[in-house]
Design brief:
Number of helices: 0
Number of domains: 1
Helix content: under 10%
Largest sheet: 4 strands, antiparallel
Mean pLDDT: 91
Order of helices and strands: EEEEEEEEEEEEEE
Radius of gyration: 29 Å
Strand order of the largest sheet: 3-5-12-8
Length: 177
Amino acid sequence: MGVCTAAGGTLLLGAQVAGAQTTATATIGAGTLNVVVPSTVSFSDTLNGLDQTSTSPLAVDVQDATGSGAGWNLTATSTQFTTGTHSLSASATTVQSAPSDACDAGATCTLAGNAISYPYSLPAGSGPPTATKLFDAATASGLGDQTVTPTFTLAIPANTYAGTYTSTWTVSVVSGP
C-alpha cells in the first residue's frame, strides 16, 4: 500500500491489484433430426346414405437437435384405404388447413415457419406413391422439440361399402425446407 504525506496529515493510497483475463469456451455438438408418429390413426363413421367426412388428428413429434438452422420438412405418402375387396378413392385423405405447431413440454424451440399451401392431399395408391411435403420448417426455424398436428379428413362417399378399411402411412422428416 502506498503512503503519501501532505501538509499536516497522511494519505493512504489503495493497493494496486493486477488483473488477469481468461477465455471461456463451450463446445456444443450437433444432435440428430428425428420424427416420432403414433402407431395408429383412426377414423370412425356410420353410413347414413349421404356423403360424409371423418376427421382424425395426427400428432407428429419433430426433434431437431442438429443446431444447424437448415430447416426441415415432413413428407407423407400412403397406400389406398381398402377392405381387401373395396377401396376408397386415392384422393380420399386430405388436410384442409395448416397444422398446429407447439413446443413440447420442457423444450425451448423455434417454431417452424411453414410455407405449405392447404388443402393438402395425402398421396395414395396400391403401392405408396412418391411422398409429398405435408409441412415444412424454413431456414432458421423448427429448432428444438415440437409437435406438429395436422387434422386429416377422410371423404366417405354415400355409396361406400361397410367394412374396416386400412391404409399404411409413411411420415418422414427430411433436412432442408
